[in-house]
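Hi again,

Forgot to attach this to my earlier email, sorry! This is the prediction with flavin-adenine dinucleotide bound. I've pasted everything inline since the attachment limit keeps bouncing my files.
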Amino acid sequence: MELKNLTTFHIGGRAKYFYEIKNIGELIDCLSLLKKKKIKYYVLGNGSNLLISDSGVKGAVIKLTGDFKKIMQKQNTLLVGSAVSVAKLITYGVSHNLSGLEFLWGIPGTIGGAIKTNAGTRDKSVAKIVKEIKIWKNGRQKILIKDEIGFSCRDSQITDDVIITEVKLALQKRDENVINKNLKSYMLKRKHQPRGFSAGCIFRNPPGMSAGELIDRAGLKGTEIGGAVISPIHANFILNNTGKAKARDVWKLIRLVGDTVKKIFNIRLELEIKLWGDFK
Ligand code: FAD
Ligand code: EPU
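Structure tokens for the complex follow:
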């Protein structure tokens, strides 16, 4: 299966095996088959925080759908499948007078991916609204409460062999006008972010600093390799402007940025995006 069109970067080679899983029964069967055949697997959300190598991934890619896209509500608590998109959750919140999700506006991922990456803005992350999650690990189902997820800055301790299947979110009842007002303020923050094929910010912000600002001050905005370019609007975004960039072009830019920022500011930037496949 071609992975390119399953990522927001529109970059990436093929997966040797690809499984679209609709319910827990299918997931159990799939995982036991992969275990028996000793095949490594990757879980794909909406592919919005990923750079997949041009040679693709050797193992299997699992994408959840069907039952994993359900939303259930019990008063101010939502029980949602991990494949539900953040955008759909926000729309649900607006139409059911539930507030708490607004800061996630503009994040083009699933709630499962948002939890693994502790997605959010500068001042808030998804950790703030998560009560517990249901996961599959080593053929067993487990519930992790918030403190067991190990949330940190744009990260969690969810390892790559863990599949998040369900998420419990704690929200508050609010008037629709209040929710819409909140949403507008988060929309404004996105005005200085570029459009086009990307994976959002490439690097984590070093404590108390902005990676984008450092890359900008290093004079790298607009630098282009192959079809990939450091956004002239926000320097922490790399764009696949032409739709024809290769993972190796993006990787060369990433290394150039890392080396230049280290040389000028003596700061080692850490990757925020996840890499799948071979990168040298
Ligand atoms: P994917 O990219 O598919 O996967 C990311 C990681 O999560 C992978 O390791 C994957 O294996 C894992 N994963 C996905 N689903 C599951 C699951 N069910 N169980 C276990 N592991 C899973 N991020 C922010 O934090 N803040 C922003 O403001 C922001 N803005 C963005 C703007 C743009 C234009 C783009 C393209 C991206 C932006 N991002 C932002 C990055 C990205 O959208 C988030 O990290 C998002 O939460 C990733 O979700 P996903 O479903 O796309 O995950
Ligand atoms: N800046 C520059 N030049 C640039 C980019 C930014 O000087 O090219 C300056 C801005 O002027 C501002 C400061 O850097 O003074 C911070 O910029 P911004 O408000 O854009 O915040 P950020 O740290 O770059 C973070 C998240 C974004 C999130 C916004 C929402 C990280 C790495 N980035 O951006 O998340 O959308 O806040 O406010 O945490 C993502 O994680 O993928 C992502 C896009």
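Residues 247-265 form the longest helix (19 residues). Helices lie at 24-36, 86-95, 111-116, 176-189, 211-217, 247-265.

That should be everything now.

G.
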